Amino acid sequence: MTKSLVGIAVLLSICISQIACNVTPRNSTVDPYAPRNYTINLDLPPKQRWAELIPDYKHNIQVFRDYMLNLLGVNPFYLNFIPFSFARSYDSEFAEEIKAIAELAGISYNEGYVMNFVYEFTAIKACTSIVMRTEGGRIIHGRNLDFGFGEYLANLSSVVTFHKNGKPLYQANVIAGYAGHASGLKFGKFGITMNERDTASMWDNLGSYFLHRSSPSAYLIRKVLEKADNFDEAVKMLSETRLIAPTYFIVSGTQPHEGVVITRGANEVRNMSWLSENDPDWFIVHTNYDRDQPDAPNDLRRVPAEQRLAATQHKNVSEQTLMDVVFSKHPTLNIRTILTAIFSAETNYYNTTMWY
After folding, report:
1. Domains parsed from the chain with CATH numbers
2. Which residues does the annotation mark as catalytic?
3. Alpha-carbon dihedral sign for residues 169, 170, 171, 172
4. Which H or E run contains 236?
5. pLDDT tens for residues 153-188?
6. What are phi and psi of 252, to 5 degrees?
7. What's CA 178's distance to the chain center, in Å?
8. Most exposed residue of 13, 110, 228, 249, measured as fewest CB within 10 angstroms of its CB?
9. Which alpha helices (DSSP H) does 28-172 contain, by range?
10. Residue pLDDT, tens place only, 65-121
11. What does residue 247 show for φ and ψ, rounded to 5 degrees?
């Protein structure tokens, strides 16, 4: 256990030092494009369900693995601090999934394991999520995924439709090698995005994992998309499941009032901000700061987004409005923006635009 704690602490301290908030304008010459699409059957064992997607990204997963090892400056041997038996005792399904992905990708189990804690290992104030209600009452949900390692993560990105019992269950943005999701839509039910909340120390996060069998935030989103049957059940699971690291969960539904930002600590809900209680009450914009706290003076993402939406005629808003007015404009779109995802649970619309 001590070896595991020390090993993770070293990785955390190095990774955190490499990533900081950055809303520099995007200067890429890459034209926006659509990601690849896949279908995954959750009724199959892990190695079979990932048998098409992971081999397509095998080289890029290994490139990202090499980049991370070089960034950390460590020999792969020193990543072997979590035996498979230990991980399996905590969450057998999660461990088996990572094992299958690692085998298909040609990397070690521990390398795959580390990659699946990239959110918990980093501290970057990034991502913008918006829930918006049209004048007719339809809920639209969107997000810009901002993160470090943009080129690497873009080369691992796809959109996957997950099937269960022979039927499409949900759709999500998937980073190859990563078992969780940062955004997803359960067809006809609800949508979820998560934004980083940096309020705990790395030792708090380690304690949450090792002492309390807590869940990685993105993997919890996946389980909610699989198991929750409606908006209220999704909010309940996202509010009550113990987490490794603090997180903002942004949830949308199919009814005019179903939009909420859940401010999570590891084992508590600090705040729930509802779309219907916002001013104006037809949209809510969230970045990386608690709703009752001011944004950092050098981080100007939220206020311009709110001002642009407020200046828009409510009767004309649509998915394209979110893209044209907010998500494609600086500072919401910035040098760390990897993708934009916009979706609606009522219509099952799901669109992703890649920026790297």
Report:
1. 2-32+44-121 (no CATH), 128-354 (3.60.60.10)
2. 127
3. negative
4. helix 231-240
5. 999 999 999 999 999 999 999 999 999 999 999 999
6. -125, 155
7. 10
8. 13
9. 46-49, 53-56, 58-72, 84-90, 92-105, 109-115, 118-121, 150-154
10. 998 888 767 676 666 666 777 778 778 899 999 999 999 999 999 899 888 887 776
11. -155, 155
